[in-house]
Amino acid sequence: AAMGAKLLCLFVVSALLAYYIYTPMPEDFEQPWKTMLIMATFKAVGHLSEIADQLGLLHYMDSMMLITKAEYVAPMSDENVTVTDTEFSNVPVRLFVPRKASGGLRRAVIYFHGGGWCLGSAGMKSYDHLARWTSNMLNAVVVSVNYRLAPKHRFPAQFEDVYLVTKFFLRSDVLSQYGVDAKRVCVAGDSAGGNLAAAVAQQLLEDPEVKTKLKAHALLYPALQTLDLNLPSYQENENNPLLPKHLMVRFWSEYFTSDASLREAMASGTHVPRESSHLFQFVNWSNFLPEEMKKDHVYASPTFRSSELAQKYPGFLDVRAAPLLASDAQLRRLPRTYVLTCEHDVLRDDGVMYAERLRAAGVPVTHDHAKDAFHAAMMFVLSPFELAVGHRLLNRYIGWLNENL
């Protein structure tokens, strides 16, 4: 009987492992097993966080934050770059300054990490590596910002932190202190950080105190709107383990409140009040997506409910949280733009629509669409999860910065 019990245990464990590790992969993925392993890890962490949250042991985001903490590396200078943790305008930043002599003024990138406004840090191995690589390849000063995170801090705290840092860095005395050319500064970010980069670039245009103009902004698989969380990309990638729809909805709602009623309304698409219906023109995918992305999807008119949630949490209709809600007149003044989107990503259509709208407004846009990539693929350029596609995307992004900054 003991033998039978052991066999049963082994069978159950194997079945669970197989369930975790096996994720059906699109045919065009290179390294499917490595990708599956990444997906399985994220699936497991998500489930464990969910259980801890249900049992009241740990807030969902606090469990998820353990990944961020496990990935932390101290600021370490190397032969090419001096790395320090410091503060700009009372906001913590990790600063990367090239060591090699520069024949003149340098370029600069102000970078905002991803993590759904709840997770991540400039000190995570992948973000440290990305900033170091950027600084090294471009001989540029890189400012990687540690903005405040939800659930402890809600919108607009995250935006305010990155905005303060950008504004501080763009002061002429600060630029000259770091030997940076005022005409060659860009903001960049991935995912929630791409959201913040777009919001910062837009808000700088409205700020009479800022004399220095950004040269460019680069958005890597950004989240750009809260109105329609049922776009074709959300439907097609609803259960993608890396960023399933329920997690993106959770990130969005946590950005504004812990009130579960906002999360539920966002999940069912009933959070936008009728008086905001005019905003849907800016996110109507049937007007902005290319034919091959529309596939068999049919645009459904939004469902409107009472305005109670929007009155309580006006943040989700604020252009600083949802940069895709900017008018064409605002978009027209933006600097040249790089947008990276991944086919297998709920956020794909946000980026595609932004690129389309910017292009229509006359902004020089480079839109890189990675057909064989999933959300956050660029972050997997470090072992043990080193992905060839991550390297390819990283090189495209750095290449664009090199030519356009």
Automatic annotation (TrEMBL):
Protein name: AAAD deacetylase
GO molecular function, one term: carboxylic ester hydrolase activity
Family indicated by similarity: Belongs to the 'GDXG' lipolytic enzyme family.
Keyword field: Disulfide bond, Hydrolase, Signal
Originating species: Todus mexicanus (Puerto Rican tody)
Gene assigned in the entry: Aadac
Any Pfam family hit: Abhydrolase_3
Catalytic residue positions: S191, D345, H375
InterPro entries reported for this sequence: AB_hydrolase_3, AB_hydrolase_fold, Arylacetamide_deacetylase, GDXG_lipolytic_enzyme, Lipase_GDXG_put_SER_AS
